[in-house]
Amino acid sequence: MSSQAAGALSPAAPSSDSPSHTPLHALHLRRGARMVPFAGYAMPLHYPAGLLKEHLQTRAAAGFFDVSHMGQIALAPRSGTVEDAARALEASIPIDILGLGIGRQRYGFLTDASGGILDDLMVARLADRLHVVVNAANKAVDLAHLRAQLPDTVEITPLPQALIALQGPKAAEVLARLAPEVEAMRFMDVREVAILGAPCLVSRSGYTGEDGFEIAVPEDRAEAVAEAILAAPEVLPVGLGARDSLRLEAGLPLHGADIDPGTSPVEAGLAWAISPARRRGGARPGGFPGADRILAEMAEGPARRRVGLRPEGRAPVRAEAPLFAEEVGGAVVGRVTSGGFGPSLGAPVAMGFLPTGLTPPGTRVFAEVRGQRLAATVTPLPFVPAGFKRG
Q1: CA 274 to CA 379: how far, in whole Å?
Q2: How far apart (Å, rounded) are the C-alpha atoms in residues 87 and 110?
Q3: Which of 36, 86, 106, 262 is the residue whose CA sits 20 to 30 A from 391?
Q4: What pLDDT, in 10s, does the model give residues 157-215?
Q5: How high is the pLDDT of residue 13?
Q6: Which of 147, 155, 133, 153 lies closest to 92 in space, CA to CA?
């Protein structure tokens, strides 16, 4: 993947003549990473092993990712209880936060008054606070949005700490050598754990479709924890290039590309994240920004949907390629939002939006690439089965 392609990973990334550095910047340089600007940070695009090896190592064993550019925010009660803070957050998000148990995490999104997705995020509930992780390019806007939405009884604190992801079928085995208690965790569990004596917040989650963990660690201990993980023979450091191809194969949307304020959660295929309690007929239906549109689309269906696409042949179909229902003539009916080569499949894969009538699996459509229309078949997501530990 070129640096230009990496830039496409974050269309809304802030521009800066002097990008910020994560706490692991020196580690990346020591390991020979090719650094590129991304969401206002200097980030590794790939290491000497290359994108293909990094991708396949993550699928077969374990990959290490620096995701410290992401935003981490603590929501704690100034008065009242954590349940009061959860109730306040739930009023501004279409997710069941009150029903989220202590030590559990949930995927969700911030929506605007028109039902569009301002950002997608993760919310973890701990005994004394909520822990929210948001996308790097949106973290300042998200922080301002939360401060505007939540009452003064909730203290909102951005957290200056590193965030590491360890992903792959060997991730639990590797991390358990440093913190044995993580092996008993299941998908979306969250636990406060000491790693090399450093107080860390560990969640069994990630954005590759593989089993794995995200580890929030104090900045001054991040390099020691990272080097200890990377010392395992099963682990390779992984850059933005393979991070993007892994999440694409997993059918996971990227904010600013596949989802944005012009996209509703239902159109994006994310209605599964809206818990029954927040739907029509539930215990606490609606009440969040954009509820009228979102709940109506859940009941009646949206006009368009995000789909997986398997292009025929070997040529990748990239983001922004227009989609047509016919091989010749006809109007544009949709567009590709993410696309590239899927190393695990040995073939190109893509995601995009099509009118609902063209979204049944097996439907053949055509993507225009350099003036030619290439056939692609609508395919269920994910392209590669998830490897999460659910039991």
Answers
A1: 23
A2: 15
A3: 86
A4: 999 999 999 999 999 999 999 999 999 999 999 999 999 999 999 999 999 999 999 99
A5: 46
A6: 147
CA dihedral 305, 310, 311, 317 (to 10 degrees): 60
As to burial, measured by CB atoms within 10 angstroms (0-12 exposed, 13-18 middle, 19+ buried), residue 122 is buried
> By C-alpha distance, which of 310, 304, 320 is closest to 257?
320
Q: Which amino acid is at 28?
A: H
Report the C-alpha gap between 137 and 134 in whole angstroms.
Answer: 9
Residue 325: alpha-carbon gap to chain centroid: 30
Give the pLDDT score at 14. 54
Token readout for 12 is 């809304």
Which structure tokens are listed for 318? 């990239």
